[in-house]
Amino acid sequence: MLASKGVPSFGRMSDDLPDSARNRLASVARQAHFHPGQRIVSCLHSPRTLYVIQEGLAKMVGISEDGRERILHLFRPGELAGWVALEKDREAGCDVIAVSPVQALAIDRRDFLEVGRGEPTVLLAVTREVSRLFSNMADWMLALVSAEVPQRLSRLLLELAEDRTGPRLDFVPLAHPLTHEQMAQAVGASRPHVSSVLRDLEQAGAVRRGRGRDLRVAPARLAELLGVEPLVAAA
């Protein structure tokens, strides 16, 4: 995920950054790699590093009152994780864990703030990105309490579809395959319930199940079931 002239992309923030700011960030960033299940940010420590996800999928998790792990957000390529690092000595509160192999750009808090003092657009860009993420998380939390599991799971599958612009009956893989347990954690349901809903969605022509994580979805059909407009491929 590289920008022009060999300068790495800083995800969604790149759109708000001039070349001078991206170059200065690139000079202090390093590549970081995480294996599935490896903690990127620990809830028990005050993080010192911001991460821009370049490849892979990571989850922000918390523990519910009944002791179950709940996925609060799925970080995808282009998103910023570990923003709590900008607040000195503040514990993260939630773990961020790699779901698949993750490649990220890592920037130390001190280096980031130093760049921000010379390039104020960096601070504005990270503020917009954190605000966008909080808005998305709030929307998802609202869905967890206001929508039924079939709607929540359909929305999750639609968001993770590799290509959302095909014809109605086209089945595509997920850009980031999940286990049934991970889907259950993300939509706030039990694993058996998720498996049951997947069977119903298969009968409705919205998913096609294979072995293991081999799940294909029909984005246009999912959009139809959700009552939202499907994406249309550019001419």
* Main β sheet profile: 4 strands, antiparallel
Classification by helices and strands: alpha+beta
pLDDT averaged over residues: 84
Q: How many separate structural domains?
A: 2
> What is the CATH superfamily label of the largest domain?
Jelly Rolls
Give me the strand/helix succession. Answer: HEEEEEEEEHHHEHHEEH
Rg on CA atoms, Å: 19 Å
Number of strands: 11
CATH architecture of the largest domain: Sandwich
Order of strands side by side in the largest beta sheet?
1-8-3-6
What is the CATH fold-level name of the largest domain? Jelly Rolls
Stretches where pLDDT falls below 50 for ≥5 residues?
1-5
Tally the helices: what do you get? 7
Shape: globular
The CATH first-level class of the largest domain comes to Mainly Beta
Distance between the termini: 24 Å
How is this structure best described in words?
- By secondary structure, this protein is α+β, with helices and mostly antiparallel strands.
- The protein folds into two domains: 4-145, Jelly Rolls, CATH 2.60.120; 147-226, Winged helix-like DNA-binding domain superfamily/Winged helix DNA-binding domain (Arc Repressor Mutant, subunit A, Orthogonal Bundle), CATH 1.10.10.10.
- It is built from seven helices and eleven strands.
- It has helices spanning 19-28, 109-118, 120-146, 149-160, 180-187, 191-203, 219-226, and strands at residues 30-34, 39-41, 49-55, 58-63, 69-75, 80-81, 95-98, 102-108, 172-173, 207-209, 215-217.
- Helix 1 (19-28) runs antiparallel to helix 2.
- The two termini are 24 Å apart.
